[in-house]
Amino acid sequence: MGKALEYLGAARCAAVFAFLVAVDDKKGNKLDLWCCCPLHNENTPSAHYDATQDLYHCFGCQAGGDLINVYCELNGYDEFEGFRAFLKEFCPERLTDGSGSASKPAPAPRAVVRRWEPDAAYIPPEKWQQKAHQIVMESVEDLQKRPEVLAQLAEWGIDAATAKACRIGWNAKDRFYPVTAMDLPYQSSKNNPKAERKVWWPVGLVFASMRDGLPAKVKIRVADQKDWMPKYWQVIAGDVPRGYLPPYLIAGDPRWKIWVIVETDRDAYLVWAACRVLSPDLPIGVMAVGAAGARPDAYAAKILCRAELILCATDNDFAGKQAFWDFWKKEFPNARRWPVPPRYGKDVGEAVRPLWLKPAHFPLDDFYNMGIDPFYLDICAWIEAGISARVRRAVSMLQQSPKPAPAPVKPPPPPPKPKSRMETVMAEVAKFPEFYAVFKSFRELIKGKPVGFYRNEFGGIYVDSVKPEWGQKHHETMQAIWKMWVDHECLQEIIEYYFPDRIKERI
């Protein structure tokens, strides 16, 4: 018997399990529950919980245990820490302080809210994307030629190769473009209503969020920041319509099964650079949300729903923690709270070691005398520690599963048959509707008949029978041919232009 069953009883164990996991109402009963396993991604319920025995088992990933084990796995607790957290949340009467007095009774389970539906990402007009892509790529090349800016990135733990791969650039001059020049609706300037509003690209570090190879959002860390300026300036890409969201920065292949969620673009590049040196059998992608409360757009949500694990590494503060429990844990059962340990700072940017500071065995006093905190986070070890053995097995099984055979390559279509001379002429004449019908009727009239074209002594062209005896026998037909030839002067022009070799001199 598990401790949860001993403390709560079967009915309350079933209620707690239903609170933690979305159960399938059409299957089982009140004490025999079925659900989609929260420990891996699936669409068909294959996990079973028997509240009368406090036993959980998934027939998909073979995970098992009791209710407290499920609670610890969902919330990223170890066995001891998770046991106390479980008692504190669901049966605080069993959790006593040093004096032996019990805490307040557990609150009733909260009602399950309706599932959140993601909105689509706002993608700027194509002309804006093309112009922004040109500027971004110029700034990427410019950054690689500026050692002082590369030194600033090294302070953040970003080397030159990572900067180039992530398209981090340096905008060396202020750029101003009219909004209509970037395919945005006309807007008047706030300072001068008679003038058109400008899209400003300030001097500073350029960070671009790419979608399908083109920028969907561009932020610039302003170099010469004034009091009224934000630290990061978002380049105007038009007003986000209602029902759309700003796109996430996504670094990685959408098919990858492990994703790390951070707040700032800078933190995303740091984690992405660290993930590249991990085992190639364990690919890890990174997403930057921009702010702790920002929701993923439909494209990002689709990627995250397919993931085996989401390490939610938002800032180690109240906003980051609240965002996880209020949103991520409810909407993504595969999410796990994994912030930077508080001793290193609130986020990855504060915890990383500068590249110029090489690992060395110096006394701690020497570090403090230099004004350096000796405690820096090993990002690779921190990420690997957040990936459980179950997730590693699941990702390994997916990669080892037989891939579908590639579709047979269709042979290239045979080259089109060359058009006959008459087909080419008909296509050319078809460009002139007033001539096409006449020429088509005349062609049908003389088809299969022994008639030819002759040039007279004045340079004109006429049509006549090649065989006089045939012309005498079919006089009415020749009369119709002659009449049509005389009535439509365009026929002479067509024959003279397209069939000069068929015109003979009358002997």
What this model shows, in words?
- With 507 residues, the protein is of the alpha/beta class.
- The strands form six sheets. It has a five-stranded mixed β-sheet with strand order 13-15-14-16-17, sandwiched between helices. It has a four-stranded antiparallel β-sheet with strand order 1-2-3-4, covered by helices on one side.
- The termini are far apart.
Structure, briefly:
The protein has 507 residues and is α/β, with parallel strands linked by helices.
Key phrases:
single chain, 507 residues, alpha/beta, 16% strand, four-stranded antiparallel sheet, five-stranded mixed sheet
List the helices and strands and how they pair.
Elements: H1 3-8, H2 10-20, E1 32-35, E2 47-50, E3 55-58, E4 64-65, H3 67-75, H4 79-90, E5 120-121, H5 126-143, H6 147-155, H7 160-165, E6 169-171, E7 175-178, E8 198-201, E9 204-211, E10 214-222, E11 232-234, E12 244-245, E13 249-251, E14 258-262, H8 265-276, E15 284-288, H9 298-305, E16 309-312, H10 318-331, E17 335-337, H11 348-351, H12 364-369, H13 379-385, H14 389-400, H15 421-429, H16 433-446, E18 451-455, E19 461-465, H17 468-473, H18 475-487, H19 490-498, E20 503-505
Parallel strand pairs: 5-12, 14-15, 14-16, 16-17, 18-20
Antiparallel strand pairs: 1-2, 2-3, 3-4, 6-9, 7-8, 9-10, 10-11, 13-15, 18-19
